[in-house]
Structure formats: structure tokens, C-alpha cells
Fold these 3 entries.
Entry 1:
Amino acid sequence: MNKSLRSYLTLILLLLACQVSFGQRFWVAAGASNWNNTANWSTTSGGPGGASVPGPSDAVTFNASGLGDCTLDVAPNVAGITVNGYTGTIDINGFNLTTTGTNSFVSGTINNGGAAAAVTLNTTGTTTFSGTTFGAAINGSTGRIFFNGSTFNGNVSISKTDNNSDNSSGNNVFNGTTTITNLGAATYY
């Protein structure tokens, strides 16, 4: 096999591997279980478990199709998280949960039953808080941020970095030490 054909085939295999690794993961556990268990994750909402545990290129969704509580047993780094329609509890259990993409927290509860740890935002995307109850700390930075009715029982330390004006609707409860810093050029309401 000549060198250029071998290089071409290698490139195709790498591209296919990359395509397979980027994706969406849905929590589908029917009962309480751990994050690091492939049986709890699907590539479709309500689909069969057995997908890979979410990694840095996977966006994660907790919705009504996954009824079981989720306990972290690793420190996941994911491409984004959506909690919408989920009635369970995510316990970060002393592990940092880091997200690098768009985040939407609309329902459910996120607690920390372990040592000091936090939900860490490390994104230039948008993060919306509109209904989730947090017992876990929240920290990091996000491009745009909207506080539209969540309860924060842990400490909050977030920097907004985008230059767009963001207008939150309010109705939030902050019970811990809270610092929100606007590093963008536009007004934050």
C-alpha cells in the first residue's frame, strides 16, 4: 500500500472516530445510580442505556425520561448540561462537575453530599438558571448568564464574560455567599 493511500485511510478513520465521540448523552436510570455507569446513559431521550459515559465532547441532558437520582463517582467534564423536566437529585458527592458549553438548569436539585466541590462553569456560551435548587456551590465563568428563578443554598461565584446585555427576570433565592462579576462591556441586569 503506498504512503498517500495509507495516510488517506488513516485520516478517514480519525474523522470517523471523532464523529462517533461527539454527541449527546441522556440520563435514563430508573432508580438511584452512579454517573460512571454506561447502563444509565443513552444517545436518545428515553432510549436504551449502554451509551458511553459522557465525556468532554458530550452535552448531557437530565429530563423526565431519567427518574433516578444521580450520584457522581468521578469528576466529569462535559460539553454542556441541561436539566429540564427532571425531578430527581444530582449529588456531585465531593466531585467537581465541569461544563464547557451551553447550560440550562430548569428543574431538579443539585446537591453536594461529599467534600468541598462545585458545579464549575468554564464556558463562553450561555448559562440559564430558571428553576433548579442548588445545594452545591456554583463557580467559574460563562459568556452570558440569566438568573430566572432558582434557589442557591451553596456559595455562588460567577463571572459573566460576554459583551451582550443580559436581562434576568429575578425571583432567585441566594442563601450562601454570592459574587456575580460582569467582565463584559455591556450592562448586566
Entry 2:
Amino acid sequence: MLDHFNFSYHVSQVDRRNIPASGRTMIIANHPLGALDGLALLRLVGEIRPDVKIVANDLLMGFDGLRNLVLPVDNIGGRTGRQQLKAIMSCLHNEEAVIIFPAGEVSRISPSGVKDQKWNQNYLKLAQKTNSPLLPVHIGGRNSMLFYTSSIVYRPLSTIQLANEMFRQKNRRIPMQVGQAIPIQELAQLPLSDKEKNKLVKRHLYRIAKGKKPLLKTEKTVEHPQNRQSIKHELKQSEHLGSTKDNKQIYLFDYDPMSVTMKEIGRLREIAFRKVGEGTGERSDLDKFDQHYRHLILWDEEELEIVGAYRIGEVARYMKEEKPNKIYSAELFQYSCDMEPYFEQGIELGRSFIQPKYWGKRSLDYLWYGIGAYLNKHPEIRYMFGSVSLSNNYPQAAKDFIVSFYSLYFSDKEHLARSFTPYQVSAEHKDIISGLFCGNNYEEDFKVLKEQLGHFGASVPTLFKQYSELCESRRCTLLRLWRRC
């Protein structure tokens, strides 16, 4: 239909980068024209990701090319049935993108210009139920004065004229401006009613067109994926450590500032960490330490994807170069001189991630196979150390239980390091916790920990559990814990 009318749009490359390439996203937009602006937005998002659908008039289901892209609603009757809402939620739960026009009808003229009328609040409720960020898009363009005049005189007449308005848009090119995503958690925390939040989001969207400061806190969209064949080519040039039974490949990759592999690692790190309430908030998670470290990468040969990665710091080399500032954990801990023998025969591990689609598929175990292969090639390495974070997504009480348990069984008796910002267990929970753990039976106290965390809908963080159980006779030490904010 767009090609038939020679109807197009223009959007800056900066704005195009604001469209997330993956993950559940609710895209909200104003509706200045009718069918054509919706189809143009559908095409724009479709250029970035194929898993996009649009909530639109059920009449569009009559077009074969649109049937699989439309989530139909009865715009004319003004009703959205339960099954239609379930279909929208299903797409979001499947990590797809859904386009919604909250007004549910074409913009009309008003004293302040051509704008949407009242927005329906359903999009807010759906976003909150599915924990989906809102991506605001402002669409430029307008219909004819005849349309707006008839809308004032007799509104149903203007609706009938929409078909004619499509022909008036022939050979037109409209502007689109894509804002940064609004985390739904930010909206949920505002002490406002849904009605007030709805008005705030609408005002936020219209400010995008004017280049004004956003009203709501936003989040940068993660970078778009790198070329998979280019990543594969780079990995083939790196050190191959082994293969898994299901044909995943394990590589040891050295940093290159121009590397597409490093850019993809930074992108996937940010996605994985945001999923658990962390992340830098930037488009990519790479830091100054990446250039000094080696990168253990798990590669899916069939899907041509990086499954996950670990960062390995060959600390002995840094010490010989007298550059201890290359050690990431030294920014979090003050190490004592007694730590030097561990540095001389140790490696620092950290920044591990598994991209969310591979969670629960033994991927972390495979990375540990890779670490084992690395250690086999480097028998001089006797120690592994590094920092592990505890997400602030955990309730305060759950964090207190976790820190107390691991401090009890894995405390730093040698005083090898001191955290610059040590975690403080709240006075409210300290006495309760001290009476729950006996302190001389790890297995029984671990059961108590799991039971207590269950009360908060939480579980023991995977890395805390794995790091402590990797070592024989619990020869693992947790230095004073640092709280990541």
C-alpha cells in the first residue's frame, strides 16, 4: 500500500538506533493521518527487527500482506475484547515489539494544532502487566483542512473521508522522530494515578517533535547486532579451546578496538545485565579494562551467535609490568601485600554473562569447561579470583540473608582485601539472621537460606552458589562484599 501511494518517511540515523533490535517493547505513537502512518511505522520498525506487530483496525485483516502483522481491534466500535488483549500480551511475553496508537483514532484539529484526542489507558496497563518499556514515536504530517472542518461539523463524516485522505497523501514523505525508551518501572514508581501518568506520557511524546527535554526518565537503547559472519570470521582467527557435545565452540579472544566481536560482547553484556536489574544504562557495556583482558567466548555455530562470555585477566603479567591498575577488582577492593603470591599464580575472572535466550541451557557450565581448558594449558595458574555482584533487584531482607550466610562460611580470615564500600547488614535483620544459622553445618544452613529466600520470591544467585561449590572443602573466600548500586 505504501508503494502504491509512493508514500514514504524519513528518520535520522540517531533516532533509528533508538529502536531496540530485540526484546519486548511497546511502541506508542500519535496518529496524524490514518492507515498510512501506521503502515509507515510498521515498515520502519520492520527494517530493524522482523518480530513486530501493530494494533490496528480489524478491517486491515482483509489484506493478505498484513494479516500476520496486525493485532485486530474494533476501532469504530471503540471496543477491545479480552481475547484481543490476550493476543497483545502474548506477543510481548514472547519478547516481540507491538505498535499501539493510544488515541485509537486519527488526530483532530484543536486550538493548539493537530493533535490526538484523549488517549486510552489500556496501553499503560498492558505495559505494566508485561513489564514492557514504552518507546515513544512522534509522526509528522497532517490531513486536509476539509477533513478537519468536517470533523468539527460532524465527526462521523470525517471518518468516512479518511479513504479520500489517503489519496491526498500520494507522493508525500513524512518525518518520524523516535525517542529513547521509557522504563515501565519508572512510571510505576510515580505517585500518580493511571490517568495522570497517561497524560504525562502523551505530553512527553509531543515534546519529542519540538526537541524539548523529556518529562520522564529514559533509557538508551542497546546497540543493534553486529554482522554474524564477521564475528564468525574473527573467532576463527582466535584460539580454539574446545567444543561441546551440542556443537557449541569455545574460543579465547584477544581485544581489538576495531573488533565486531568486542562490540557484540558489549551489546550482549548490557542486555543480560539489564535483564537482572543491572547494566550501565549505556548502549553497550565495555570498559577500559576490556583491552587488557582476554575473553573466553561460547559460540553457537548453528545460530551464529555469541552465547556468553567470561573475561580473564592474566594478573601475573600485569604485576611484571608493574601495572596493578589494570586489575578491575582493584577499583573495588584495597588489596593487602599478602595478596601478591595469589596475583603471581592467579587469574582474575569477571563480567560473565549468558544472553537471556540461552538461560537454563547449560551455557554457564560450558563456559566453565572453557576455563578448565584454559587452566589445562596454563598449569602455573593455581588461583582464581574476581568480584561478583548482588543485584539490587533483590529485596533488602533477601540481600541481608545472602550476605550474612556467605560471610559466615566464606569470610576473609587472612584479611587479603578490604572493600571500599562494604555491605552493611541492616540492624533490623541482623539479630533475626544470627539466630537462624548454626554456623557449623553448611548443608543445613544452606537449606535454611533457600527457605528464607523463598519467602521473598528469591533464590540463591547462580554465581554465588557455583563459585562456592566449585572448591573442595569450601576453599573459597568471599572478601568483604561490595554492594552494587
Entry 3:
Amino acid sequence: MSASNRYSKQDIVWSCCLQNVDSTPESGSVFNEQFRDLEYNGELNQATAHGAKFALLLAMLEQNSLLRPTIAKDEDRAEDKYQNDIAALSFYRSAPLAADQQYWSKVTLTENFIQSGELENAKLWLTMHPEPLSLYNDALHIPEAILENCALHVRERLKQAQQKQFEQDATGLYDILQDVAPLHVAA
């Protein structure tokens, strides 16, 4: 008696499909869902030649694609690797965004190098201790000297922009509510 006579075709398909999918994790180990997924391990691709098995595996897939395991994109990995490589190549500090107290204490040393004619030492010092990119870490801060040299319409536009910005006062609402509350009590 052959195997096809004892078992129906559907039973054979079920046993072929479930031998890899229903394997249980070993005790004490974390079962990796990614290898169980039919799309990633190639099981679904191999079943395309067998109609019934393919239909069964397709029906067994998780319908919600958000719950399926995903593999990180190669672009993300490449970008992270690139950033790590660049950071590893940098031996010196990057330039700070704004001047702080520590910078002002080191300015005199740089000034002394330049005044004494030790330009090579000054270059080395500035490479090891870069100057800040700006005095203020504020994109909206424009020095007065630059504002005075701007055209009239630019100055007026900047004044209008500053007038539109208002300070929020959280206690102001409380004061307004206190003024309104006695009116409702008296009524």
C-alpha cells in the first residue's frame, strides 16, 4: 500500500508545510520570529510551484502586515555605519555651536601664540580647540551692526516679525479668570 493511498493529498501538504513552521523553540532560548516567517525563509517562494501548498501557506500568513517581522533596510544600516566610521576618524573635538565660558578663558592663549609669532602653535591649538561657530546659538539673533546696514524695508520687516512674537504669560489667564469670576457670582 503506497503512501498516497493511506494519506490524502491534503494531509501530505499539511505535513510538508508544518514541519518547519510548527517547530517549537528549545527550552531557555528565545525563538526568532523572523526565521519562522514564511516570506523570509523562502518557504512561500518554493511553494509557488505547488498550487495547494502555496494557497495554504498564503492563507497562513499574518493578515496584518504591521505584525509581521521586518528586516531593517540596508540604507539605514549603511547610514549608521557611515556615521560611525566618520566619528571614528575624528580625533579632535568638533566646533561648538556657541561661545561659552570655557572658550573665553582659552582665547587669551590663542592670542598669545599669535602675538608672539608662533603661528604653527596657534594653528595646532585651534585645531585641538576649535573656535565656536557663533557667539550665540540662536538663528534669529542678528547683531545691531548688521541691522543698521540693512535696507529700510528689511529693518521694518524684522521689526514687524519681532512685534508678532509675544511672550506667553501663564498667570495672565488666571488673572482674567479671577476678574470674570465675581461677575458670575453676583448674577
